[in-house]
Amino acid sequence: MTAFKNLGIIPQNVKNWGINMKRSEQKARTKYNIRQAFIDLLQRKEMDNITITELAKSANIDRKTFYLHYDTTFDVYHDIIDDVSNQLDDILKQQNNFDFFIFFNELNQVMQANFKFYQTITKQKSYAYLIKDFTDILENGLTHYYLSSNQTTSNKIKIRYISNGIMGVYINWLAQPNNISQDELVHILSDLLENDIKHLNN
């Protein structure tokens, strides 16, 4: 490669690689801007009322560029949800011996990454169906980890109960985050979940 550079020549495959990398970075940056604009708009209006035109304008792009990444505004929401689901899966898969404290610490990091988004959906009753989606993600993750070989009706109900409880605590905390620190929240939830999981197979 150095020899080529000294001659002022860059092989075509290297040129293409550089161009593709640049395009990939630009695409990721544009999608990030669209998602952030979507989150900002959610704080002012309901998702059903967000138009592609205003979303594109908020993201400093035109409608044509928007359609290169998404078909509808709902696709932006589902992209965020899918990202959360993948992050939760990663948290669970990375732990050979499940540690509740580590789990909640990393779950908090996921929450903090889009804190404004979570605060918005937990403060408005019209976003109850979004909260259900997050509860389902958590339930599916816990079911996969704990009930892979013992998915009885009783255990499924217990996992659902645990998932709703965890989400309920987070909803209250996001609405009033100054009432308790994140560290305290992690310790409390870790103790509660560890105790609840013990009863799964009883």
Structure summary, number of beta strands: 0
| Topology as a string of helices (H) and strands (E) | HHHHHHHHHH
Find the structural class using helix and strand composition: mainly alpha
Please tell me how large the radius of gyration is. Answer: 22 Å
What share of the residues lie within helices? Answer: over 70%
How is the main sheet built? none
| Shape verdict | elongated
Domain HTH tetR-type: 28-88
Organism: Streptococcus gallolyticus
GO molecular function, one term: DNA binding
DNA-binding region: 51-70
Commentary on this structure:
This protein has 202 residues and is mainly α. The chain has two domains: 23-71, Orthogonal Bundle (Arc Repressor Mutant, subunit A), CATH 1.10.10; 75-199. Helix content is 74%, strand content 0%. The longest helix has 31 residues, at 12-42. Residues 28-88 form the HTH tetR-type domain. This is Transcriptional regulator C-terminal region.
